[in-house]
Specification:
single chain, about 375 residues, mainly alpha, Heat Shock Protein 90, 3 domains, about 10% strand, kinase, HisK_dim/P_dom, HATPase_C_sf, Histidine kinase domain-containing protein, two-component regulatory system
Length: about 375
């Protein structure tokens, strides 16, 4: 799943806006507010951003995109962005810079676009980069670039080690939590899309089946009328009359089956009404017919259950799907059992509820397909 249709090009476009924003912030904080005493290194980083974004833009223009190359381009873009953002924050008092939270945006982008452990890699990379800068500054092994806020006292003291550790822990934990939830949401959305595609496919199959049943049912009236005329002509011949009667009964079965298939496959909205659960089970078995083969035995244990508020056709669809899965799980034969019973004898919260059990003796669902 991608956010915009072309992720790598979208990042390049967004980065142009980010470059302009960085230049505006550097100029305003140094020239207008006086918060940034030494903007030169930041201007150098901003020019570097413009340069490598130009290279990415040229690369996108002359490259034929595919999923693998897009993912590789996004990976390198985010990697360079994280290093650049770290430098921008280092040259502007990283421990007190409010733009430290901007690392979160890259975690979200990585979590939505990249597969595998790439997003967790970037969370670790960001934690190491920021943690290393904070540690080196605290140990006074590298020069510092403090901001000068108007509210700072004349002899402003930088954050001590404990406060610095607290800032880093909060920063790193926010990154990892962001990555975790982003990846979880992406997986949920991907499963939802797969379910929607499957439902659309089943709806198409249902419409196809309903159309076929309609085409079968239309000529039946003519065939039955012809057979009725033939029966009148041969009514004096007992043997031929018996054959005609058998043919008429067979045509009636075909007609009933076609009508049941049409009723089952016709798309409907969900309408709650008083529903006979046992009747829905029996109607499902009629649609199932004898297609399950002779090596599978169907047993029913339908108890005395009250009507429930539900949608008969949706219930039949669920039961039919369960039956289909059960039959697939019994390639060598077995027993498919339907059981209904009333609930609530011991649990007052379930008074008036009805349970339906569909039990098969098949091989079960493989562990890797349980989701």
């Amino acid at each position: 799943m991608k956010l915009p249709p072309e992720g790598a090009r979208w990042l390049v476009s967004v980065r142009w806006l980010a470059c302009v924003s960085v230049l505006v912030v550097i100029w305003s904080t140094s020239s207008l507010m006086g918060v940034l005493p030494n903007p030169t290194p930041l201007y150098g980083v901003a020019v570097t951003m413009l340069a490598y974004n130009l290279l990415f833009a040229l690369g996108q223009r002359f490259r034929v995109g595919d999923n693998e190359s897009d993912a590789r381009s996004i990976f390198w873009q985010i990697s360079i962005d994280l290093v650049t953002l770290t430098l921008l924050l280092y040259f502007s008092d990283i421990s007190r810079n409010p733009f430290l939270v901007y690392f979160v945006f890259h975690m979200i982008i990585a979590g939505m676009y990249l597969r595998g452990l790439s997003s967790y890699f970037f969370a670790g990379m960001s934690s190491v980069l920021v943690g290393a800068v904070m540690l080196l500054e605290h140990m006074q092994w590298i020069p510092t670039f403090p901001l000068q806020f108007p509210s700072d006292p004349p002899n402003h003291v930088r954050l001590d080690g404990l406060n610095l550790l607290g800032v880093f822990v909060a920063f790193a934990s926010a990154l990892w939590i962001t990555v975790y939830f982003t990846v979880a949401i992406r997986h949920y959305v991907a499963r939802a899309h797969a379910e929607i595609r499957q439902k659309e496919k089943m709806l198409g199959i249902g419409q196809l089946v309903a159309g076929i049943a309609h085409q079968i049912a239309n000529p039946l009236d003519g065939v039955q009328n012809c057979l009725r005329l033939i029966g009148e002509r041969v009514k004096d011949d007992a043997r031929l009359t018996e054959y005609v009667q058998m043919m008429a009964e067979a045509l009636q079965r075909i007609e009933r089956t076609a009508k049941r298939v049409q009723a089952f496959a016709r798309p409907r909205g969900i309408t709650l009404r008083s529903t006979d659960v046992n009747g829905a089970v029996e109607a499902t078995l009629q649609v199932l017919g004898t297609s399950h083969g002779t090596n599978i035995r169907i047993e029913t244990n339908l108890g005395e259950v009250p009507p429930v508020q539900g949608d008969r056709y949706t219930l039949q669809e669920v039961l039919f799907n369960l039956c289909t899965n059960a039959l697939v799980a019994m390639p060598d034969g077995g027993v498919l059992t339907f059981r209904t019973y009333a609930m609530g004898r011991k649990d007052e919260d379930r008074m008036g509820s009805v349970a339906i059990e569909v039990i098969d003796t098949g091989v079960g669902i493989p562990r890797n397909q349980l989701e």
